[in-house]
Structure formats: structure tokens, C-alpha cells
Design goal:
972 residues, 51 helices, DNA binding, UPF0746 protein DDB_G0280785, UPF0746_actin_org, DNA-binding
Length: 972
């Protein structure tokens, strides 16, 4: 037996390159090992580990890892080959059939050839003709601003790109269709990110995945040659099935199976080898959809039967924030996934006794509920109802009659406990009067019973229905429901909060019952279960209801209780403190008016010079100002809570209305100004900063050290602010400031050199308008000329001068000055400054940081990067050679292949840049190690097309070339 295996292995080594892996063959055809022969003769347990390694190597597979891993790798290879052969055979048969049909058709006297484009609109053909013409393409895009943000430079589909661009799918589709050398998708990790991102089950997403599979398969003729060897779905079928299941993407998995016509046995094997059984144990709504789908096409291996929902979060299925249609689908997926009748029988056999009477009772209840739901027709559900949340439906439920629906077919919910469970939900024209709340309750009850029978029957203590289930479906008094909270939920603070808020906001509960609840809490009826220090939970529930009647009743009862208490014993806070503590919950003007008319003397936020106004929601500030102005009172603002989220917005409001606000800042405000700018940039509040700087003059220059640490993460958020800062700053004024640095460099020691410069931003009506236009495009807040340039009179308030600001100063480092100019598309100005002041800008202490990889990598485009490279080549010196090398490293890391192709096409540049410096070639700039590092960066970034281009062109030794190629093979 061993000798026979040895012969087979030798045959593999001699013949494995031949493509004859037909799974239906009875033996080894022409000496080749087939899937059946492999499974028959090479058992994972008895086969020698060394023999498996030889087979793996002969097939071009990795041979490292444990024995079972190597075995699974070989098995997966054969499964993929089977799918590929089936796909090829199908296409061959279709081509032969098509050829026969064409031969049978009468031949025209003169042949006419028509080029057709599948799935492409006629007008789109002209677009692609322009798009693929590099000369026209570059000419068009050279006229666009913000070239560094052009999508044609995007390399790789990472989370930043996929989540940061709302049209990321369209960009990928355009890039695939363009079929140019600059492909966004570079490797399998990019594909995995795509699978993790696009999961919606609609026609657009399904079409997207079909395009993806057609381009990245071994039969594709459109794919660039360099990518076809690294990404082929049909060469790695089992691994892609694993990735789609683990990323819980039903749409991709469904289209993948259909596109490549993968049979159930291949899917079963792939799941068994690569997907852990526990994946389906932690059951979610979306995982259930995949599980039921695989089950419906008979593709679930016996080892992966759905575990009994051990790690399932019941609250996710029963959330009242879910849409009604999701509740129906949850019910469907749960019931379809499990044969409850079979589970009952298995439990009886396992225990060798009849099932516990209580458990049997629950199974019977569930069966009864399923039968009841089978009788429900869904014609009374409108699209609005199906797309509404359960919470909203329960707050507006009335008996509903039959309503118009988009479908006219008739069927019912059909569910049984038999192995052939079936469920359909369509519409019927039958007239019906059914209470929607009762229907929702039946679905909830069924899901609860299902989980109890499947998971919690062995330990009833662990099972409890959500609190909202009792609050919405149990027809009990408020007192009775509160007892349930205490008995079933042990009276936790969170449950008390949920209970009080739900009761007080429920429009279906009578006001008298709510009044009774308030009275019972204040009279200590629940003192044993509701501690006094937890009263703030109840207070918050009352004020958050924003119900004037409830709040008024509550405050009057508090007042009565306080009158009955001695001065030394004050159980509850004062009325004024209560209202002030919860004023942030006020969400409508009527509540403010209510306090103003009835509790003005008690309310702290109606006092003169109060600071509590900062807690009132910004949407209500204008009405609040009107009330304060009507009684001649003012609010106070200092910088004590400068880090609050809306502080700068409130400061801008206060600056514009000095009759209502008094502002007082001492010298410490200069210290916190940087943090204020930083926090508002992170919160996308660039307009708030611009408003502030336009209406308040700092007595010291604004330091922009924040740019040093925060520029990279917040580049797009800062763009409007940067435009505002540099709008009226010319390159000549920057040159003047840099000349001062140059003088200091010549005459002072290094320690005395100040690497920062101070610039002045001039504010004019034109500046304001420009800023406003830009801001309007990028944010929802609009800024007008009027509110930027008022008030007219200046006023000193400590370290600030409030009033119309004509200009302000700021300091910025030379490095960040260059970065800002770059992001404003003022690269021509950078080149101008290079020429005028090379001794300053090319000073390693200043400029080297700008060209460091971590800085320029995040902002560079191929367009500008090539511009810098060409400039450094034309101005080579001891400093610029280092900057040139850094730019080449970035181009390699980002996969800008065209930059290197342009260098190679130039005989002079290629000799300087991409040939190794030796004794015989002193004209070259870089030694072997530096050039090797450039190639390694492209390999580590999985840009293999560029890697192979550089390996072939650079005159590395044979040893170095082999070493680099091995790095590529390991990452493929």
C-alpha cells in the first residue's frame, strides 16, 4: 500500500501541471491524482505527514503547519479545481451549442461585425473611450482642484475608503469597468473588506457581486494580467465560502454559489474544513438567514447543525426598536431553523423518560401559537406598518381593518413543527378586523416560548421576558406591573428607570394612574424596593416626559411635602434646584413658558447673572433669550466649562447679544484656546471656530500647534478652517516671513532659531463670503456676513476684545505651513518657495519632517508626488536626495506603478534612480539596500505588479531577486 502511494506521489510530481482533475474518473488518469483517489488512498489519520507535504508542494501549495491543516489545504485545492472544471465545461458546452446554432443559420453575403457592450448604456461607451485615453484623461483632470482627493489615485479598499465615501461601491464599479492598470482592488484582503461592507440584499448589490466575480475569475478576459494570478475566486472556493459566512454576508454568499454553480457537496466540505461549528452557535438575526439558506440547499454538514442558541442575545430578537417586518422575519427564521418536534423526541430518548410536564406544556403552547399565526392573513399590514418600529406601532395601535397593499395574491402564514417547516407571508384581499397589538403579542409570545424550549428549559431562572413585554402586553394596573419589576428584575436601577419612563410616556395609560404612581413614590409606598438615593431616577423620568400636567402635579406634591417638613429635615431638593438640575431635558418652548409663568421666582435659570442657562438645549436658546430680555435679566458666561460640547456655540451666541449676556474671561483663556479649537475641529464644528475668530480678537496670536498632532486624522475636517486661515495670505507674504528665519539661521545659534512663523489673516466682506460658500458645501451650519462682522462696537472682556475683527494673527510651524499649502492645492506656491528660499525649506531641521513618510504619505497623490520627484531630480543636492528617496518610498508603498513606469521610460532618470550604485556606476544615487527597501515596501503593501516590475528592471544580484520573489510567494 505504501509503495503504491509512493508511485502515485511520484506521478503527481511528474504530471501535476496537466489539467485533468475530473472528479468522476474511477482512477488515476494519466498518472494524475483526483479528488476521489485522494480521499480513498490518503486518509488524514493514516497517511504519513511527509507524504502529505510532498503532495502539497507538488500542487504548488504551502506545506507548513500541522498534519490536518496540510490535509485540509490539499482537499480544498481539489474542491476548487472541481468547481473550476465544472464552470469551464459549462462554458465550453455553451460555446459549442452557440457555434452549432450559428452554423445552422443562413450566412449573409457580406459579414457585418458589431461590437456590443454588456450591461453598458450607449452614452457610457463614450465615457469609457475618454476615460481610457490617458492623454485626454490627464488633461481633463488637470483642470480640477483638490487633485489629491481624486479617486483615480485610490489604492486598496480599506475601512477608511469604504466607510468614508458614500459612493464607494460606485467608485469600485467604475474602476473595474475601466479595466486600467490602476486597479483599486489589489489583493484578497481588499475583497474581504468589500464583503464585510456591502451586505444589503438588493438588485444593486447583487449586480455588484456578479460583476466582481466575473472580473476576478480564471475565465475572465478583462482582468489585467498582473492581478489574475493573485485574485481568482474559483481558485480558492472553500476559503471564500468561509470568509462570506464569517463576515455574515448572505448576499455575497448567495451570488457566489449561483455564479460559480457550486454544488452542495463542495459547500459542505468547505464549511466542514474551514468554518467552526461555533460560528452558528452564537446566533444572530443575519446568521440565521445564512443558516436557513444553506439548509434549504442541503449544504449544512452534520457537524454544523445549529447549536441550541446557547450564546443568543434574546433582547436583540425582541427589541421594541426593531421594525415590525423584522419581528416577523425573526419568527420565521427561528422556527425554520429548528425542528422542535424532533428536538422533543431527542430529549425524551436522551433522558430515557418522558419529558418533564412543564417543558411539554411549553412545547404545546408554542405549537398552539404557531397554529394561530398560520391563520393570520397579512393584508391588514400596510407598508408603513411593516416599516414602523414595534414601539411606534404599540403607541398608536387601534383595531385595524383591511388596507390597500401592493400585492394582490393570497396566502397565509404557514408553520408546522414537521421537518418540512414552511412559512409564507403575502397579502390577501379578505376583509378582517384584527387588533395589531394582539398580532405583535403573538409573535413575541412565540419567540419567547421558542427560546425557552430551545435554551432555558433546563434552568428556568435564567429565562425572563423583556420588561417591555410586560409593560406593553400585560393588562394590569401600574401597581401590579411595578410588583413584576421588583419580583422578576430584583428592582435594579436600570429597570426602575425603564419602568418609570415607559409608564409616564405611555399615551395609552390614563393620567390618573400616572398621578397615582407619582403620589405612591413620593409617599414612600415603594420604600422597601426603591431606595431614597434612587429618587433621581424617578425625578428624571418625570421631567423627561415633558408633560406639563405631570410636571405640574409632581412639583405641587413636592411643595406640599416640603411644607409639612421642618426646616432641619429636607427630604427632597428645593423646587428651583429640581428644575435647574433637569432643565437640559426640556425639549419644547411650552415647557419654558410654563416655568416662566408659574415658577419664575424659584427657577435658577431665570435669575440675573445665572450660569445654568448653559444647560438649556441650543434649539431653545432664542426663545429663552426672549424671556430673559423681557424681564431685564442677563446670563453670565465664563470659561470654566470650556470643554463642554457646545461651549463655543454658546460663546458665539453670547458675543452677538451683549444685551442678554455678560462675558468675563481672565488671562487663562489663552491657555485653553488651543484645546477649544482642537475639540471643535474633531466635532466637525469648523464654522463655530470661524465665527469666533471673526467676532473676538485674541490679545495673543492663536497657536496652531494642534495641527502638529491632529492634522492627519482630521484633514478633511480641517480643510474649511485652513481655507479661512490662508484665504488672503499670499506666497510673497510667506516668503517675507521665511526670510526672517533665514537671517536667524545665518546669524544665530541653532537653539535661537525659531522654526515657527507668525502670519496675519485679514477678514473682509469678500473673505467672509468665500468662507461661507465653502462651509455651506461641507457642513449643515451656514455662516453669513452679518453674523461674522457684528457687533460694531468693540468691548474688552479680559483676554478677548469682542467686536468686529478685521484681522488676527496665528503661529504655525514651517512643516505644517507646507502641509496646509499642499491641501489648498497651492503646490505651485510651494515650488515658488523652494526656488526662492532653498536654504530654509531644504534645511533638514524644517523640511525633512514634511517629506517623512508618515506625513506626506497621508496627503500625497500620484500627480503631486511625481511633481515633487521631478523637482528633486532637477535640483539634486545633499538634502534633496533624501527627500527624493522618501518620495520614491511613498510611491512604492502606495502602488503608484505609473510613476515608476515613467522613470523607467526615461533613460537618464532610470540610470540615476533605479540602478544600483557601484564602483563602475557612480552616477546612480542609491545602493542595493536602499533600492531593495523600495521594492520591499511595494511587496508589504501587496502591490505585486509594481514589485515584479522593479525586480525585473533593477540590476539586483540573482540571490537578491530570488529572495524578493520568495517574499511575494509567501504573501500570495
Amino acid at each position: 500500500m505504501i509503495s503504491n502511494k509512493r508511485k502515485e506521489i511520484e506521478n503527481i510530481n511528474r504530471h501535476h501541471e496537466k489539467d485533468n482533475d475530473d472528479d468522476d474518473s474511477d482512477g488515476i488518469d494519466n498518472g494524475l491524482l483526483t479528488y476521489k483517489k485522494f480521499k480513498k488512498d490518503f486518509d488524514s489519520g493514516s497517511t504519513n505527514y511527509r507524504e502529505l507535504q510532498i503532495i502539497a508542494k507538488s500542487l504548488g501549495l504551502a506545506s507548513n503547519g500541522k498534519k490536518q491543516l496540510v490535509y485540509n489545504r490539499i482537499e480544498g485545492y481539489f474542491l476548487s479545481k472541481k468547481v473550476k472544471n465544472n464552470l469551464t465545461n459549462n462554458e465550453t458546452n455553451q460555446q459549442e451549442e452557440k457555434k452549432e446554432e450559428e452554423q445552422q443559420q443562413p450566412q449573409p453575403q457580406e459579414k457585418q461585425y458589431i461590437l456590443t457592450f454588456k450591461d453598458v448604456e450607449p452614452v457610457e461607451i463614450y465615457f469609457w473611450k475618454v476615460f481610457r485615453n490617458i492623454v485626454i484623461f490627464k488633461h481633463i483632470f488637470s483642470n480640477f482642484k483638490n487633485k489629491q482627493y481624486g479617486y483615480y489615485d485610490l489604492i486598496g479598499c480599506n475601512g477608511v475608503f469604504l466607510n468614508g465615501k458614500s459612493n464607494s461601491m460606485e467608485i469600485i464599479i467604475d474602476n473595474i469597468k475601466s479595466n486600467n492598470n490602476n486597479q483599486i482592488i489589489r489583493n484578497k484582503y481588499n475583497i474581504t473588506n468589500i464583503i464585510n461592507k456591502f451586505k444589503k440584499n438588493d438588485e444593486k448589490t447583487r449586480s455588484f457581486y456578479n460583476l466582481l466575480f466575473s472580473r476576478y475569475s480564471s475565465t475572465s478576459t478583462s482582468l489585467p494580467i498582473q492581478l489574475s494570478s493573485t485574485i481568482q475566486f474559483d481558485e480558492d472556493i472553500d476559503k471564500w465560502i468561509q470568509r462570506m459566512i464569517e463576515n455574515v454576508n448572505f448576499t455575497a454568499l448567495d451570488q457566489f454559489i449561483k455564479f460559480f454553480k457550486i454544488d452542495s457537496e463542495v459547500i459542505k466540505k468547505a464549511i466542514k474544513i474551514h468554518v467552526k461549528p461555533s460560528v452558528f452557535g452564537n446566533t444572530t438575526y443575519d446568521k440565521l438567514k445564512i443558516y436557513n439558506y444553506l439548509k434549504s440547499i442541503n449544504s449544512i454538514p452534520t457537524s454544523h447543525k445549529l447549536l441550541p442558541f446557547i450564546s443568543t442575545d434574546l433582547s436583540a430578537f425582541l427589541s421594541f426598536d426593531n421594525k415590525f417586518k423584522k419581528l416577523i422575519k425573526s419568527y420565521k427564521r427561528l422556527i425554520e431553523s429548528t425542528n422542535l418536534q424532533e428536538r422533543m423526541e431527542q430529549q425524551e430518548q436522551k433522558e430515557k423518560i418522558k419529558i418533564h410536564p412543564n417543558n411539554k406544556k411549553y412545547y404545546e403552547k408554542l405549537n398552539q401559537k404557531i397554529l394561530e399565526l398560520n391563520e393570520i392573513q397579512t393584508s391588514q399590514f400596510t407598508n408603513d406598518q411593516l416599516n414602523s418600529t414595534i414601539k411606534n406601532l404599540l403607541n398608536h395601535t387601534t383595531p385595524t381593518s383591511t388596507s390597500t397593499s401592493t400585492s394582490t395574491s393570497t396566502s397565509t402564514l404557514t408553520l408546522t413543527l414537521t421537518p418540512t417547516t414552511n412559512l409564507t407571508i403575502t397579502t390577501s384581499t379578505a376583509s378582517n378586523n384584527i387588533n395589531l397589538k394582539d398580532i405583535i403579542k403573538k409573535f413575541y409570545k412565540s419567540i419567547c416560548l421558542f427560546f425557552y424550549c430551545s435554551v432555558y428549559s433546563a434552568n428556568e431562572r435564567l429565562f425572563r421576558k423583556p420588561l417591555l413585554y410586560y409593560l406593553n402586553f400585560k393588562k394590569e394596573s401600574v401597581d401590579k406591573m411595578y410588583e413584576r419589576v421588583v419580583n422578576k428584575w430584583n428592582g435594579r436601577s436600570f429597570d426602575h428607570q425603564l419602568f418609570f419612563q415607559s409608564i409616564l410616556k405611555d399615551i395609552n395609560i390614563e393620567k390618573n394612574e400616572k398621578f397615582e404612581l407619582i403620589l405612591n413614590v413620593l409617599d414612600n409606598k415603594y420604600v422597601k424596593t426603591f431606595e431614597e438615593y434612587d429618587h433621581y431616577i424617578f425625578f428624571k423620568a418625570v421631567f423627561s416626559s415633558n408633560d406639563i400636567e405631570l410636571i405640574d402635579y409632581f412639583l405641587k406634591k413636592i411643595k406640599q411635602l416640603q411644607l409639612n417638613q421642618t426646616q432641619k429635615i429636607t427630604k427632597y431638593p428645593s423646587i428651583g434646584k429640581l428644575i435647574g438640575d433637569y432643565c437640559h431635558l426640556i425639549d419644547k418652548k411650552e415647557i419654558l413658558d410654563f416655568y416662566f409663568q408659574n415658577y419664575r421666582d424659584e427657577c435658577l435659570f431665570f435669575k440675573d447673572q445665572n450660569e445654568i442657562w448653559k444647560q438649556i438645549q441650543l434649539e431653545l436658546i432664542e426663545h429663552y433669550e426672549y424671556l430673559m430680555d423681557s424681564i431685564g435679566k442677563r446670563c453670565k458666561l465664563d470659561f470654566y466649562r470650556w470643554f463642554d460640547q457646545n461651549f463655543l456655540d454658546r460663546l458665539n451666541i453670547a458675543i452677538l447679544k451683549p444685551s442678554v449676556y455678560s462675558i468675563g474671561f481672565d488671562g487663562y483663556f489663552d491657555i485653553v484656546s488651543e484645546g477649544l479649537v482642537d475639540s471643535n475641529i474633531k466635532d466637525n464644528k469648523e464654522n463655530s471656530i470661524i465665527n469666533f475668530l471673526s467676532n473676538a480678537q485674541l490679545k495673543h496670536p492663536l497657536s496652531l500647534e494642534i495641527f502638529e498632532s491632529s492634522f492627519n486624522p482630521y484633514t478633511s475636517k480641517m480643510l474649511t478652517f485652513i481655507k479661512f486661515l490662508f484665504n488672503n495670505i499670499s506666497k510673497e507674504s510667506i516668503e517675507t516671513k521665511l526670510k526672517v528665519i533665514n537671517l536667524k539661521t545665518d546669524n544665530k545659534s541653532f537653539e535661537e532659531i525659531n522654526s515657527k512663523i507668525e502670519l496675519t489673516t485679514t477678514l473682509t466682506a469678500t473673505t467672509t463670503t468665500t468662507t461661507t460658500t465653502t462651509t455651506t458645501k461641507t457642513t449643515t451650519t451656514t455662516t453669513t456676513t452679518a453674523n461674522l462682522l457684528s457687533p460694531k462696537k468693540s468691548k474688552d472682556v479680559g483676554c478677548l476684545t469682542i467686536g468686529k475683527t478685521e484681522s488676527f494673527n496665528f503661529t504655525i510651524s514651517i512643516r505644517m505651513l507646507l502641509v496646509c499649502l499642499y491641501n489648498l492645492d497651492r503646490v505651485d506656491d510651494i515650488i515658488y518657495l523652494f526656488d526662492k528660499l532653498p536654504e530654509v525649506l531644504f534645511n533638514p531641521d524644517y523640511f525633512s519632517i514634511f517629506t517623512n513618510e508618515y506625513c506626506i504619505y497621508g496627503i500625497s497623490s500620484s500627480y503631486y508626488l511625481e511633481l515633487f520627484i521631478n523637482y528633486f531630480i532637477a535640483n539634486i543636492n545633499d538634502n534633496t536626495i533624501n527627500y527624493l528617496y522618501n518620495c520614491l518610498c511613498i510611491a512604492s508603498k502606495k502602488g503608484y506603478t505609473q510613476i515608476f513606469k515613467n522613470i523607467i521610460s526615461s533613460d537618464q532618470n532610470s540610470k540615476y534612480l533605479l540602478k544600483i550604485q557601484t564602483k563602475s556606476n557612480q552616477s546612480s544615487l542609491f545602493n542595493s539596500k536602499l533600492l531593495n527597501d523600495i521594492v520591499v515596501k511595494s511587496i508589504n503593501s501587496l502591490n505585486f505588479e509594481l514589485s515584479n516590475l522593479l525586480i525585473d528592471f533593477i540590476d539586483f544580484s540573482a540571490k537578491d531577486k530570488n529572495s524578493l520573489k520568495m517574499k511575494i510567494l509567501k504573501l500570495k
